[in-house]
Known about the structure:
51% helix
Amino acid sequence: MTYITTAAAPVNTTAPAKVIPSPSLATRLQAALEHARRLTEMRGTSDVEVAIAWETVEELQVAFYQRQPVVTNSLERYCSANPDAPECRIYED
């Protein structure tokens, strides 16, 4: 499954090169999810291409959620700012 295709084009050295932004990870994940759903509707669940499409969705989900910031609670934020505070002591057995 290819989302971006590039073709060799003549290079104009007098003009600045245009940078084509790649689709964001969220956009690629959404497109892969829609593709996998449509492919499943068309071919069923036992097709190899359907399995590959869903594997792509899983890989993009892992990459997407690894980039998401970790949500911390107020105590964790306080302890990261004040590691010597009594509230932030860690007692181990």
